[in-house]
UniProtKB/TrEMBL annotation:
Its main location: membrane. The keyword Cell membrane applies. Keywords: Cell membrane, Membrane, Transmembrane, Transmembrane helix. This is Polysaccharide biosynthesis protein. It is a multi-pass membrane protein. Pfam families: Polysacc_synt_3. It is found in: Cell membrane. One of its GO terms (cellular component) is plasma membrane. The keyword Membrane applies. The chain crosses the membrane at residues 12-35, 47-69, 81-103, 115-134, 146-170, 190-210, 230-250, 273-293, 314-338, 350-370, 382-403, 409-429, 441-458, 464-484.
Length: 498
């Protein structure tokens, strides 16, 4: 029980910055979908997909390598890894600056190379600060980590509001002709949705303010022998992460290309991409839980040596992680009838609402996969993780190519779900062979099926029941089932069953 409390405490600390910050960031969906049409936001959906993939190439698994080897000599590996990251980041960023014009033309956005320059700088800052942030996690300096992340998020939100809810309406004349005449130069229409990139870039620069001490402690240290050792460990992690992120992002990259013209009546392929990409963001609630947990669990199970990070505790933590994620899956899926009107301001975006329960479940399985993947990192069998992820990637790509022309963006959602389930099963099989842990597999399956029944229950209830009640009745039944199964009452107090 103590390990649950400890990890729950750290997860909540990281979760405070992650959930509060991402939730505030998520509120920007309201701003973006109000300010721009789906086709206008298509460039952001596509380019941010590439950013997510490029971030992995920029750090090439070194963050996980740092957790794995820092316990031997924290300062030494901090300097070696950060030296390598700064060197390669400088090279990658220079190449993007030089090739910005041809790259943007190839992506279908000619004369927009300024966007790629901003993106290159965003990537550079993210990669250079990744290891200092990892150091804060390893040293359990949660407050500093949280402060840096939240401050950057607030800056990003503030700039988005300024650009899109103040400067843009003034330029468009919504606040009167006089203000339009005096201040219309504050907004440049040709940049449009590019202001989202600009706000992100300025916010990222604030990281250097918070990480001043971590960079003052840094000295360039190049050690080919150690670097080769790190690369051998890290590169399979990179390929695994690359395949995993491609698994998450390639549906958005393929959808616009593979969707037949006129598939959705009155909608272009760019509209469909914008609808899918912004509805996808409603699955962020599951991603928040996964990310917050990873921040605390990865250093705990990889970077520390203690009596607590045992296989039994890993299984216990995974069991409760699944339960929490199921509540998130049910909570969002059962309340889409009112969440959609709050977060997706234009009704055109509501057309894609059906993908959200599927994507939430897919992310749930992906979270389980991340949890149980500790074995190949501890046993230095990261190549097996790469193989599993590549298989999942192949399923996603195949599903999208085969079924997008027939089923549209629902094919993308179900392909991702199939991939996440298969990866979880393969990872579980491999883990039980090389480093067995007593996972509660039967209970996990039972809870997921119960969650599915809770989501489907409203479809079979009488119409006269108030919608808020009918939609959430299944969650109440699930909670009762959970309490009866997991808890016992002793001396008037609830306690976990053993």
């Amino acid at each position: 029980m103590s390990v649950l409390k400890k990890l729950a405490g750290e997860t909540l600390s990281y979760g405070f910055s992650t959930i509060i910050g991402r939730s505030l960031n998520f509120l920007l969906v309201l701003v973006h979908t109000k300010a721009f049409s789906p086709s206008e936001l298509g460039i952001n959906v596509k380019l941010y997909s590439y950013i997510a993939i490029a971030t992995i190439l920029y750090t090439y698994g070194m963050e996980t390598a740092y957790f794995r080897y820092a316990k031997e000599n924290p300062q030494k590996y901090y300097r070696i890894i950060l030296t390598a990251i700064i060197t390669t980041t400088t090279i990658f960023t220079g190449l993007l600056f030089i090739g910005a014009g041809p790259i943007m033309s190839a992506l279908g956005y000619p004369h927009q190379e300024t966007f790629l320059w901003w993106i290159a700088l965003i990537l550079a800052i993210d990669s250079i600060t990744a290891i200092p942030f990892a150091r804060l996690r390893l040293e359990q300096k949660t407050k500093k980590f949280v402060g840096a992340k939240l401050f950057s998020i607030f800056v990003n939100i503030g700039l988005n509001l300024l650009f899109l809810l103040v400067f843009k309406p003034i330029h468009d004349g919504h606040w009167g002709a006089q203000l339009q005449a005096d201040f219309q130069h504050l907004y440049e229409p040709s940049i449009g949705a590019g202001y989202i990139f600009l706000a992100n870039l300025v916010a990222n620069f604030t990281f250097f303010i918070w990480l001043k001490k971590e960079f003052q402690d840094f000295r360039f240290e190049w050690d080919w022998t150690e670097l080769k050792r790190l690369i051998i460990y890290a590169f399979p992690i990179m390929f695994m992460s690359l395949a995993a992120m491609s698994n998450l992002m390639f549906d958005r990259l393929l959808l616009e290309e593979l969707l037949p013209a006129g598939f959705y009546p009155g909608r272009t392929s760019q509209d469909a991409l914008g609808i899918y990409g912004n509805c996808y963001k409603l699955s962020i609630f599951m991603s928040l839980a996964i990310q917050a947990f990873k921040y605390s669990a990865e250093p705990f199970f990889l970077g520390r040596v203690s009596k607590e990070n045992t296989k039994e505790n890993l299984a216990l933590v995974t069991h409760w992680f699944i339960i929490v994620c199921i509540f998130l899956w049910m909570g969002v899926s059962c309340n889409l009838f009112w969440l959609k009107s709050i977060f997706l301001k234009r009704e055109i975006y509501w057309e894609g609402i059906g993908i959200i329960p599927v994507l939430l479940l897919a992310n749930l399985f992906l979270g389980v996969y991340y949890n149980i993947s500790v074995w190949f990192k501890l046993k230095d069998k990261t190549y097996l993780g790469t193989l599993i992820t590549l298989i999942g990637f192949a399923v996603t790509i195949s599903g999208n190519i085969l079924f997008i022309p027939k089923y549209g963006y629902m094919a993308s959602a179900y392909s991702f779900l199939a991939s996440a389930i298969l990866m979880t099963i393969l990872c579980l099989i491999g883990g039980q062979k090389y480093d067995p842990a007593p996972y509660k597999i039967t209970s996990a399956i039972l809870y997921i099926l119960a969650g599915l029944l809770a989501i489907e229950l409203p479809n079979y209830l009488p119409q006269f029941i108030p919608q808020l009640v009918s939609q959430n009745l299944g969650i109440i039944f699930f909670l009762i089932f959970l309490i009866l199964k997991e808890f016992s009452i002793q001396d008037g107090k609830f306690s976990l069953k053993k």
